[in-house]
Amino acid sequence: MDVTTARKRARLLDLVRQFFIEEGYLETDVPALSPDRIPEPNIVPFETTWVRGWDSPRTYWLLPSPERHLKHLLAEGYPNLFFLGKVYRNNESFSPHHHPEFTMLEWYQREAHDTDLLATLERLLERIDTEFPLPPTLRPPFEFIDLPRAFQVWAGFDWTQTPVVESMARAARQSGPVGKCSSWEDLWDWLFVDRIEPRLPKDRPVILQGWPARHSGQAACDPERPQTARRWELYAGGLELVNACRETAEPPEGPESYRQACRKLGNISGAALGFDRLLMVLLEKPTIQEVIFFPLMGTLNNHE
Amino acid sequence: MSEIKAGSIEKGSFLLLKNAPHYVIEREFYTPGKGTAIVRLKIKNLLTGQTLSETIPTSQSVDTCEVEEKSVQFMYADDHSYHFMDNVNYEQYEVPIEGFEEKRHYLKEGDSYSIVEWNNKVININLPPKMVFNVVEAEEAVRGNTVQGVTKNAVTETGLQIKVPIFIKVGEKVLVNTETGEYVERINK
Questions:
Q1: Domain B68-126, what fold?
Q2: Which of A188, B81, B107, B172 is such that its CA lies 20 to 30 A from the CA of B100?
Q3: Which CATH architecture best describes the domain B3-63?
Q4: What is the pLDDT of residues B105-149, one digit of tens each?
């Protein structure tokens, strides 16, 4: 990373931190090492060993997300809070948009709906714009796209009406070949990448809403449309930048202590933003490796 | 024939899909929302020349093509074929122009290229990523036009038509990106 980019990175970190502090959020931190695996079916954590010469070694995992720790704090009565730091994900694709170690901003708002998070995001972008002029790909107004509707238009069927993988595959085949996927969730993802994502506007920020409830991790169901979750994602220039939701009180998995913590959360919404990707978009850099210190190199030459 | 996981496909890989060799032009990874990683490819069917897109979960296996790459020198083209000579054993190869029409203006007599064979058939001619050409024709620069980034049409000794900045004159050498056909810079020699 060149020194100009490094200065901008440092400034943006400062600015984001300042924004949340001024909005009344408490900055928190989480450990890099965790004694348990985080319950996210599609995230593979890095595994390491705590060697203790006097006792048997213990396995630890590098945190792929601060979510569980932060929810424990909220259950203890912490106020609105945020985390801005490193998280680690193993088995991620090696691409210009992914890096196994990356910087994440995660914030939680009490007594808030997922739409309140959107208002916070808009204020954050407004603040960023005072020092980093927002490119057209990130400059509001956002375009709102409802996923059930997008599937009807671009894939020719309504996934809320196809509850099993076979019925979804049959419906999808009418608009073209369908990939081999064994689970409903995998096929939904495949169709999203094949039929929906290529058609999303790339020249302006897009908010995708109406994600499948069964495939939305810790997001609460939308009582008006139980098949969908109270969750939205921001895409800027085709890049997934923010994932936000109203948190569920009944998480699908996790140890009992975590489930108990979730039941105590009340009306809470949280958002995660890929900080390195935000910097990429703001500085119009084509690869994430250009905005982080000492990126791991693999077969990156293919992207030059 | 061997298999690889779709996640390890790279730009420039050769894949065997529906019994036809395909060249990977572009590869992008997506991990939508809370989902699994999926790779989307832009590929070229090397038998038909057709470009298409393919979406594959990264954990799925894909057949690769056993291809052979040879370093060759371009000799000449006639009405139907390009003629190359193997740089190692001097064997000559005749490659039908059909399907490789767009390579014509990048082939320079005596220059080295690599050809890719599959089942004893040439399925691709690889160009160097950037090549130097002589400008043999160029439009006159419009006087007084000082706006940055203005280009004009030019033609190289191989017949390649390119857009160049207005300061480029006939007789000068330019570097061209062979993938995009775009001017890169003037070569001062």
A1: OB fold (Dihydrolipoamide Acetyltransferase, E2P) (2.40.50)
A2: B172
A3: Roll (2.30)
A4: 999 999 999 998 888 888 889 899 999 999 999 988 765 555 556
B177 CB within 8 Å of a chain A CB: no
Indicate yes or no: CB of B53 within 8 angstroms of CB of A93: no
B120 Rama sector, left if φ>0, alpha if ψ -120 to 50, beta otherwise: left
Look up the pTM and report it.
0.79
To the nearest whole angstrom, how far is the Cα of A55 from the nearest Cα of chain B? 38
Give how far B10 is from chain A: nearest CA, Å: 7
Task: Look at residue A258 and tell me if it is in a domain.
Answer: yes
Tokens of A76: 């203890």
Contact yes or no for A215 and B34 at CB 8 A: yes
Distance of CA B76 to the CA centre of its chain: 19
Q: What's the one-letter identity of residue B136?
A: V
Which of A35, A23, A41 has its CA nearest to residue A122? Answer: A23
Write out residues in chain A with pLDDT < 50, as ranges. 299-304
Cβ–Cβ contact B171 with A under 8 A: no
β-pairing, B38-45 with B121-126?
unpaired
Q: Residue B55 and residue A179: Cβ atoms within 8 Å?
A: yes
Subunit contact A97:B29, Cβ cutoff 8 A: yes
Residue B40 forms contact with A (CB below 8 Å) = yes
Domain around A278? 3-141+248-303
* Cβ–Cβ gap B10/A192 under 8 Å: no
The topology under which CATH files domain B130-187 is OB fold (Dihydrolipoamide Acetyltransferase, E2P) (2.40.50)
Domain extents in chain B: 3-63, 68-126, 130-187
For residue A192, the chain B residues in CB contact (below 8 A) are: 30, 32-33, 35
Min CA distance, B113 vs chain A (Å)?
Answer: 19
Contact B34/A233, CB-based, under 8 Å?
Answer: no
Intrachain domains B3-63 and B130-187 with the same fold? no
Q: Could you tell me which residues come within 8 angstroms of residue B156 by beta carbon, excluding any fewer than 6 positions away?
A: B105, B133, B134, B135, B136, B162, B174, B176
Cβ–Cβ under 8 Å, residues A115 and A102: no
Total tally of structural domains belonging to chain A: 1
| 0.85 surpassed by complex ipTM | no
